[in-house]
């Protein structure tokens, strides 16, 4: 692999790819170091992933917390495993509860679904971990109890979250205890979250779903006439699931099945294979045009069909059939931007991390509170900030994603993985940023798998994002002549400064070299870090 990879960075960057036999890549340097500590103590890639994820709830509360959801893909050295640890709606929810609204709430208790991240940590540790959960939690506990310096990007997002959520129950007491959010460079301590992490680790998650912490969450819900009950928490489960995949560039890309949006990446890749995207050079007008059109088709299907897997109208695999992909590819005009609707496949705020170890184990993991700090609800005395995943439901009674009790909403957060032509691990990768995630996965797969760009170059390359219809946002570093050509084809191009906008997400990649080491890279535009040894 290393002989095929182009190590020319190719795009403006502050970083070069890191190489070593063990690797951790994530969005916050101190969290990456937490994972590295576990590897140095004899732990494996799953141990490193859990420690990193727990630390991120402390260090990056603007994107995730103890009330997050999570998903993971694990290569255990022989095969892949998928974990869906997203939570479900409270049993009392139904469409009638929200009938007076035109859309699901985005803040407050009526946006809160059962948190699943803790069950992800426990499930991963039980199945693959080698160190006790109490050891894995220690870096996070230390950061929460003794404090950490707030980094520049997190400081900006913290202020933004405070401006929006300061009046939500429990928010300011936890995240603005001095009457304001912490400033960049200030030490921030969250001793109540430290205590909660200790209880989670000591009880193997039981305190969170059935014990003292569960009771505090439910008592606070009751105080605000919210629907969450002890039964909702006790009935939660994380599910090991079969992955969906799509052949691409001689390898195979894997995503978790619905309720996540990863299938959109696979649909788009399948359409691009039909369009023979390999004929075109990366960053060329034709390459960008076809990629954008394929993504638009995939997003149309995502919006119409994807929901909780138990509530799909048909098996998700039908969206990946060769006949269907061919029919969708036939809609693409190579010279003109199109407006697409969904097809007929049947005839009737987030943090990402990747870890890898010298034994060959690799982990792709993502967790999120959804929009910034999530719902803004923080359970007093616990540091538990609750997600707002309820906003992902539809109120359309005919849509498979319509809100219902005990149901999982459509999810934006998705980890990804790719195998090479021999069925061996090629890379663990992911990208944060709401609806940008499936689009970012597509762009990373194109650059690394098809064009052999090194991970850092693939991450630093200018990204694009389909917004709606023919509107496409692009990073300001994209070539001006290329943008003019795309506009001439009918694309409505909006240029954004990547340093002033978080709409293009932040990526991490760990690429495996057959010689027995890893090539790790993380977002140059953000605070992230890849560490190796």
Helices and strands, with pairings:
Layout: E1 18-20, E2 23-26, H1 29-40, H2 45-59, E3 69-75, E4 80-84, H3 117-128, H4 133-146, E5 148-149, H5 152-165, H6 171-175, E6 187-188, H7 191-202, H8 206-209, H9 212-223, H10 230-234, E7 239-241, E8 244-248, E9 251-255, H11 262-274, H12 285-305, H13 322-329, E10 351-356, E11 362-368, E12 378-379, E13 384-385, E14 416-419, E15 425-431, H14 436-450, H15 455-460, E16 464-468, E17 471-475, H16 480-488, E18 492-496, E19 507-513, E20 517-522, E21 529-532
Parallel strand pairs: 17-18
Antiparallel strand pairs: 1-20, 2-10, 2-21, 3-4, 3-11, 4-7, 5-6, 8-9, 9-14, 10-11, 12-13, 14-15, 15-19, 16-17, 19-20
Helix pairs in contact: 1-2, 1-4, 2-3, 2-4, 4-7, 11-12, 11-13, 11-14
Keywords for this entry:
7-stranded antiparallel β-sheet, 16 helices, alpha+beta, 533 residues, single chain
